[in-house]
Structures are given as structure tokens and as C-alpha cells.
Amino acid sequence: MSDPVLTFLAPRVLDLGPTSATPPDYVHWRLTRDRENVAWAVLDKAGVSANTLSEDVLLELDKILDRLEVDRPRGLVIRSGKPAGFIAGADVRQFVGAADPQAIETQMAKAHAIIDRLERLTIPTVAVVHGYALGGGLEIALACHLRIAVEGASFGFPEVQLGLHPGLGGVARFTNLIDPLQAMSFMLTGKTIHTAQAKALGLVDVVVPERHVRSAVAAAARGELRAHEPGFIDRLKEAGPARRLAAARMRQEAEGQAPSAHYPAPYALIDLWEQYGGDDAALKLAEQASFAKLVVSEAAQNLIGVFLLREKLRGLGSAESQIKRVHVVGAGAMGGDIAAWCAWKGLQVTLGDVKAEPIAGAIKRAAELYGKISHGDRLAERDALDRLTPDLKGDGVRHADLVIEAAPEKTDLKKSIYAGLEPQMKPSAILATNTSSIRLEMLSEGLARPERFVGLHFFNPVSRMQLVEVVSHEGLAGDVADAARAFVAGLERLPAPVRSAPGFIVNRALTPYLLEAVAMIEEGIAKETIDQAAEDFGMPVGPIELADQVGLDICLAVADMLKRELDWDMPETPDWLRQKVEAGKLGRKSGEGLYVWRDGKAIKAGGASDPDPDMGDRLVLPMINTCAELLAQGVSDDPDVIDAAMIFGAGFAPFRRGPLHYAKQRGLAQVRERLEALEVKFGRRFRPSDGWSRLEA
Ligand code: NAD
Asked: How far is CA 512 from the centre of its chain?
């Protein structure tokens, strides 16, 4: 029998049309013809694992179109030669540092001309999409007459997350093809569209398994596949008055998600559609100018920077992970969810605990999670559940390549667990802890193989939080650190390497921010006003709401630990806060914390007064000051890792590209002066860190 792990990871075999014996004429494309005289243009961008659109790729497509216009085939198929997917969008690196909108507009006009030419071909053109078709990739597919989706494919316009909107004719083509309100909603949110929904919307014309691609293509070339046509009602929605009304509502909804003061792209997109919807030529022209203006904006440059930070962290774990079997100790909130996620990502997982109930609870939660994230793929759900084995006795420990401990946060308990585990583990296996606060040096005392002991600090909830702090200590072997990062990246999580230190990066930098908010409550400032001040800065939620989301018990435990471990001036934690925790008012999870929570939402009083101008800096600068301190102390030597950890682990305002980058953009000297002024007014806790001189250097 084949190994289920290997089967899961095996690349699929794609039907890429006939092979050619002659040397290729193109660097990135392969052009062949099948027996029915259908041309297959297969994009397999040289030197990379995923296709992106760049100038050279489009110029080659232009040459292919030259050839097809002279020697007309019966039809044209465009598909990708990469196992992972179709085209992942434009190569954003080409926009880094762009400052001249005119130059961008000229570049976009050239690209538009090539894609318009593809659309104008008079033979049937078919995009065959497997895996993903994103951004510019989807825009190429939209310029074809028909779209065939291979089962499991997904589609989306993630441009807004980069501070942009579609720029290769996508706004016009997408709003033309399907219900324009739905099209706008997908472009405004960047949400992924899976096959069933894509078919229902009319974005794709047929969904087939890979083995039926060839016959679907032949049917398309013979004119037997009907392309989706927008309905009468869809067109009515694009009529002038209806469009203006819809645009006003879209603006209002967007304000709640991405305020216009910080995120210009959604509003530029709404303006475009409101002004030119229904007039393709005008819309495409205006789209180029609007896109060019956005690319050079500070928000887009910073959001592109965030995209590159994500790539950088991914790259830190780029080696192929050798870990196939994982045993998790402790099936509570974290252990259960870590186990579920590992099984979902194709690993064989055993899950242990001292009691059966938490294991049963974790398996139930896993089934619920898979039901949500499988998009109806029952087979994938069942396979993942098959890979997740309850293991009360701990039989899996002996076979595991990695054992992750997620038992309660008590040093002695964790050490006694290791004493039982280590002798049973394979000598080559890695032992990891999910501790959020205990120094690894303390936990590794008494281990036979401390060099194979590492921290893997996952965040809650594991299925949504992208960051994992990979915690090293003096005695950690280099290959184990490499393997731990590769394991994290293999789980589609972002590994941030950090040195063992109290609170690592995220909890340490968040704590002064949360405690300052508590100090403001003590001063009598309304909670809603405090949250508003942070949101005005660009945080997705304010500190009071965040503390409730994390859990007041956890915040308090981290703050106490940091005060114990560090010689650090921090606002006192007031008695009323401790009493709240003792009374079980822990935040969202218990229904009440600093706010009362209903249906997962904090109930906030209306009419909060405007925040005092000092408040934003009072909240945010201590967090940034701590980030500078973390750099000075070498908890990480890389400002990018600190910035990325705060964005992906704590939600730091993404359009500011991280706390340290923000400080640089604002001016390091200015930030330091501001901290000094706040120190005079509010006390030592605002004293600038030594880390600033390092950053200034
Ligand atoms: P939890 O209390 O929800 O779960 C702990 C589980 O460990 C329980 O099911 C318990 O029965 C089990 N357990 C107790 N003794 C055990 C033993 N000797 N052997 C095996 N299992 C045992 O705790 P949690 O919130 O999941 O936290 C676990 C770890 O993760 C802690 O180190 C915590 O600091 C860390 N962490 C927690 C969060 C969070 O938000 N909860 C976030 C990041 C990290």
C-alpha cells in the first residue's frame, strides 16, 4: 500500500496538450498543436515554481498571438505547466519603489494592448485553470472566451490587499461577465472563489476533473461549450442610477473594513465602476490611470512591502520538511488545534492528553473546522480526520518525527512530561514546546538531547493566525532550527525565528500597549475612546477589544511574567482587573471581560468622545519602543522579522508595514523626541530604548 502522506503530497499529472520534439521557441511558454489543430499555449515561467505575469511573459504571449494570427488553429488553450496552479498574478516586485505614475501607466497600456489582442481572436479561446488563478492570472482567463476549471481550482482578485485594484482590464471584464455587484464585492474584499461558486456565478463555464480536460477542450473548439452570458437583471444593475446607489452603499460598507483615510484602493475601485461601469473602453482607460496612481501611493508601497515580508518569512523555511509524523501532548485549546491543522496539511498525527475528554473535544472541533475550510470536499475532510488519531496512551511518541508539547504553562509540569517522553522518542526526533512565556533554557534543563529541543509558539486560533515564532536557545542545533522552520512553512504558516527571551517578540511588544490602555481606563477614559484612538492609527481592533479577544487571564499571566523576568517600567495592573479574572470574566470566551460580548462581538456604547491627540502615541509608541529594544537585545537581529511578527501575530496596521518601518517613515529622531516628551508627561515607561541608536546607525 502506498504511504498516505506521500500520496497526499505527490504532484498531479497535468494534461498539457501534445509534446513537441522541436526545441522551444519561447523562454516561458510552450506552443504546440493537437490532432484537432487546437493550439496549446502552456505557461511554465522559467526558473520559478509559480507563474507570475511580468513584462517578458506578456511580450512572449504577444509573439504567440503573432504566430496564431498568421497560421490560424481551430482553437487556443491557455493553461499552466506548473503543478500548483494557473497564474498567481502580476509579479509585484516590479512595482517596488515605483514613484512615477506616468511610467506605470505607459507600461499598463502596453500590457492592455496584448490582452485585448487575445480577447479579439476570432477562434474559440479557452483558459484551463487548475489550482489558483489570481489577479493578473484571472484577468488573462477573463480575456478568453471560455473558462474550464479543473476540480479544486480557485479564483480571486487579491489586489486590494496590496493597496491596488485589478489593472489589466479585470474591472471591466469581471463586472461585464457576471452580476456586477457580486464582481465588485469579490474585488473589494479579495475573497477567494471556489469552483462550485465560480460555476454558479458564471465565472467559469464548466468544471471537470483533470482527466476530462482534453475532451472539454475539444468540445470547446467544436463550439459545443456555451460561454456564460450575463443576464438582463445583471445589466440593469449597471444602469446609471442603480450604479450610483450601489456605489454609495459599497463606500459605506468599505469604511467599516478598510477606512478610506488609510486604504485608498477600494474607494478608487468604487469610483471607477461608478463613473465608467458599462462603458468598457472608458473603464479600461481609467483603470490604467487609477492603477498607476495607486501603485505609487504610500499605502500600496507599504502593503506590497508586507507581501514581501510574508515571502521573506516563507523563504526562511523553504527547505522541504522531512517531518511526516507528529505527536501532540495536551489536547486543550492549543494542542487540539495544532494537531487538527497538522492533519489537515497532510501529516500523520497522534494526539495525547491525561484525560480522554479533551481529546474527544479536540477531534470534534477538528471535524467542525474541516467542514468550514474544505469547501465541500468531503473526501479531504474524511482523509484529514483519518490522519488525526486519538492517543491517550501515547503510543505515537515512538514513531513521531516531531513531538509538540502543549500542556499547561507550568515549568515543572512541562519538565516532568519531557522526562517521560524523551526516552521513548526516536533519537532523531525533535521535541518542541508551545510555551508562550517560559524561557527555553529553563525547560531544557535535564534533557538528554537539549540540542533537539525547540520552541514552536503558535498563536490562537491556529487555523487563522499565520505566524509561528520558532524559538531558539543557546544549545539548539542548527539543523533542528532549520527543520523546525521548514515544518512551519510546510504547514503554510510563517516562521519567525526568535531567540528565547521573555514573551519572545509578539507578547513582549503587545503588553505595554495593552497595559497603557488599562492605565487610560484608570484615568477615567472611556474604553470605546481608547479603542478608537488605536483604530485611528490603523489597528484593526483597539487594545481593549484585543485584550478581551486574547483572554484577560492570558494577558494578565503574560504581564506578570514579564514584570517578574524583566527590569521594566510598566503601568500597574489594577486590582479590579485581577478580580475580574478571578470572577471568570475573561473576555470573549466567557461572554464578558472588559466589554460584554454577544454573538462574538463586543457591545460598545455609542457616542464615545474623540480621542485626545496624545492617545494614539501613548498607546502605539511604547509598543514600537519595545520593538527597538528587542532588536538591541538580539531577540531578533532583523527588523523585518520583528515587523512581520507584529503584523502577522498581532495585526499591527498592515498599511504601515510594521512598527519599525513606521518609525523610520515617521522619522527616527522625531519618534525619539516624542517618546522623551511623553516620558516627561507620563513617566519612565516612555524612556526611549537604546535600540533607537542602532536603528539610526
Ligand atoms: P489548555 O489548558 O487549554 O490545555 C492544556 C491541556 O493539557 C489540557 O487538555 C490538559 O488536560 C492537558 N494536560 C495537563 N497535564 C498533562 C500531562 N501531564 N500530559 C498531557 N496533557 C496534559 O491550555 P492551552 O491554552 O492549550 O495552552 C497550552 C500551552 O500553549 C501553554 O504552554 C500556553 O502557554 C501555550 N499557548 C497558549 C495560547 C492560548 O491562547 N491559549 C497561545 C499560545 C500558546
From this structure: 26
What pLDDT is recorded for position 6?
33
Please give the DSSP secondary-structure letter assigned to residue 422.
G
pLDDT band at 23 (very low <50, low <70, confident <90, very high): low
Q: What are the catalytic residues?
A: 90, 136, 139, 159
Whose alpha carbon is nearest atom 25 of ligand 1? 333
- CA 405 to ligand 1 center in whole angstroms: 8
Average pLDDT for 515-530: 96
Q: Check: CATH 3.90.550.10 for 321-499?
A: no
Cβ-Cβ contacts under 8 Å for 42 (sequence gap 6 or more): 16, 17, 29, 30, 31, 32, 79, 80, 81
Beta 193-194 vs 430-433: how paired, if at all?
Answer: unpaired
Average pLDDT over residues 263-290: 96
DSSP letter, residue 158? G
Binding site membership of 331 for ligand 1 (Cβ less than 6 Å)? yes
DSSP state of 450: G
Interior/surface letters 607-637, b for 16+ CB within 10 angstroms, e for the rest? ebeebeeebbbbbbbbbbbbbbbbbeeebbe
Q: How far is CA 279 from the centre of its chain?
A: 34
Separation of alpha carbons 389 and 652, rounded Å:
37
Q: Name the amino acid, one letter, at 205.
A: D
649: enclosing H helix or E strand: helix 639-650
Distance 485 CA to ligand 1 centre (A): 22
Tens of pLDDT along 46-65? 999 999 999 999 999 999 99
Q: What does the block give as the cell for 518?
A: 488599562
**Domain range 506-635+667-696, its CATH number among 3.30.565.10, 2.60.120.10, 1.10.1040.50, 3.40.50.1580:** 1.10.1040.50
Nearest Cα residue to atom 20 of ligand 1: 353
List the domain boundaries for the chain. 4-296, 321-499, 506-635+667-696
Distance, CA 486 to ligand 1 centroid (Å)?
Answer: 24
Class of the domain covering 4-296: alpha beta
Ligand 1 pocket test: pick from 328, 329, 334 the residue with the most ligand atoms within 8 Å of its Cβ.
Answer: 334
355 lines ligand 1 (CB under 6 A): yes
